[in-house]
Specification:
Elements (H helix, E strand, L loop, with lengths): L1 H7 L3 H6 L10 H21 L2 H21 L3 H4 L2 E2 L4 H12 L3 E2 L1 E6 L3 E6 L8 E6 L6 H4 L3 H6 L7 H12 L8 H6 L12 H7 L3 H20 L2 H5 L11 H14 E5 L5 E5 L7 E2 L11 E2 L4 E5 L11 E2 L6 H7 L13 E3 L4 H5 L13 E3 L17 H11 L9 H24 L6 H5 L3 H29 L11
Parallel strand pairs: 8-11
Antiparallel strand pairs: 1-3, 2-5, 3-4, 5-10, 6-7, 9-10, 12-13
Helix pairs in contact: 1-3, 3-4, 9-14, 11-20, 12-15, 17-18, 18-20
Length: 487
């Protein structure tokens, strides 16, 4: 049952990296989705079955809960709590409760992660940890009631997302704002990759993250110059020059990048929103809260139900989405703890060999985009996979003319895979050489952005190093290969 549920919830990346005989688990996300599907099935069966059947279904559901607990059992042990003043956050919770927020969570601070939320009582699978009234959600519908919208709705085809950003920049300084308490609880600096200084960017040079951050910065700078000082000139009463600075604009950008959520409102419209209080929840690759984002039409509130149990005093995690470390550093300012299955390195390979012989290639070998991730995530470390994805290996075998069939001799298989492994090393050895090991003495005295940049670079090095080690080990153990034909 679990194996079938895993397949139902596999995404494209999991399909790409799964081997032919791989039955999972494929990722924490996939396992949570699969077990929750079965949990909900047991709930329905318990409501409609006879007494004898109920006993069996209850035993199954109890076992599912045990497995759900095991999915993220390492998360809480990795986070060290610390004492810190959180008056602003407490005020936010009281403000939220006054406006109808229902919560089974409280504020806590953690070393290396900042603020988070812990369960004030034990919360079970399917129970709601947090409930936010729709009236507190900052969305396009709220924007339409503001003077910012009235002034800009016909201005240069400006988007609602940009207007929301401008509204936030301005509302932060509005002492009579309904959301004054919310804005006061937000940090002065979000410390995302968008705020990286010259030293941090220099540490990232040559990585994909460097390109991602530079492109994002250039886009935001161009956007700011397109808006200002034009808006200050055309609407001086709404957009004051002392408020509409580059620093305030960047603060609003980082706010929306790091705190926004996609929510289906009661109107049925999918909108990018800010959800007060919910933004205090930290991300995890094995979160407690996985599926959220639709306002309940009956209660007109956004509910955050648990996909795995959370005990009293345990930090409650939210999923920010299926993102690689580069995206999380750029727009959120952190790397997640634990193995992130979405930390992949895309490969720019020539697919002409596939295209020329497309009729003879399978679906897996006709892939035009290939990628790798840490081989430690694979359960197929030796021949014929070496911890690498089968679509990539099939592509390289086709490009090198090293295809396998029933007539291929064992000697040819060994020779073909020697060529394959040496080709892989010719790709990844130079990549590894471009990422020298970090001097730990440099890290100790470094600023927050340099430390984060070095952490990301270390992660990239670890992924590439695992591939080099796997291929080198396979070449050294070549005499012990056994005949196995790939289909």
């Amino acid at each position: 049952m679990i194996q079938a549920a895993r397949i139902v919830h596999m995404d494209e990346l999991e399909l790409y990296f799964a081997g032919d005989d791989d039955i999972g688990p494929f990722s924490a996300r996939n396992e949570l989705e699969a077990l929750n599907l079965l949990f909900k099935m047991m709930n329905k069966l318990l409501l409609t079955s006879d007494a004898a059947s109920k006993e069996v279904f209850q035993m199954l559901q109890d076992e599912i809960v045990v497995r759900l607990r095991s999915v993220g059992k390492k998360d809480n042990a990795q986070m060290v709590s610390q004492t810190q003043n959180h008056d602003a956050e407490d005020s936010l919770l009281k403000w939220g409760e006054h406006h109808g927020v229902k919560s089974k969570l409280r504020i806590a601070f953690y070393q290396g992660a900042g603020r988070g939320m812990v369960a004030s009582e034990s919360i079970g699978v399917g129970d709601t940890a947090l409930e936010i009234p729709e009236s507190l959600i900052i969305s396009e519908e709220l924007l339409c009631q503001s003077e910012v919208f009235l002034a800009l709705k016909d201005f240069n085809n400006i988007t609602s997302e940009t207007m929301l950003l401008l509204w936030s920049m301005r509302e932060r300084h509005n002492l009579s704002s309904k959301f004054k308490t919310y804005f006061e609880a937000l940090p002065e600096n979000f410390n995302t990759g968008l705020s990286f200084g010259i030293d941090a960017l220099a540490a990232l040079e040559g990585t994909l993250l460097f390109d991602e951050i530079m492109q994002a910065k250039q886009h935001l700078r161009q956007q700011y110059e397109d808006l200002f000082p034009l808006l200050c000139t055309n609407f001086p009463e709404i957009f004051r020059k002392d408020v509409c600075t580059w620093d305030n604009f960047m603060w609003a950008c980082e706010l929306w990048y790091s705190n926004s959520m996609m929510v289906v409102l009661s109107s049925g419209k999918l909108s990018t929103c800010l959800v007060p209080v919910a933004g205090l929840l930290n991300h995890s690759v094995s979160p407690h809260i996985l599926n959220y984002g639709r306002v309940d039409e009956a209660t007109k509130s956004l509910k955050f139900p648990l996909s795995r149990p959370c005990d009293a005093g345990e930090q409650c995690f939210l999923s920010y989405g299926k993102h690689p470390g580069s995206h999380l550093v750029t727009f959120y300012g952190f790397l997640p703890r634990g193995d992130n299955p979405y930390d992949v390195i895309p490969l720019d390979l020539d697919t002409s060999a596939d295209e020329e012989d497309g009729a003879a290639q399978s679906m897996s070998t006709s892939q035009t985009t290939h990628m790798v991730r840490g081989t430690w995530l694979s359960r197929s470390g030796g021949f014929p996979m070496y911890g690498l994805p089968q679509p990539l290996l099939s592509h390289l075998r086709a490009a090198l003319g090293c295809g396998l069939d029933e007539s291929t001799t064992e000697a040819d298989i060994k020779e073909n895979d020697r060529v394959l492994l040496e080709t892989l090393l010719s790709i990844f050895n130079p990549m590894l050489e471009d990422l020298p090991e970090t001097d730990e003495s440099d890290r100790e005295s470094a600023s927050w952005d340099v430390k984060l940049a070095l952490d990301y670079k270390d992660l990239q090095r670890m992924i590439i190093s695992s591939i080099v080690t796997s291929c080198t080990s396979a070449l050294e153990n070549a005499p012990r290969w056994k005949l196995k034909v790939l289909h």
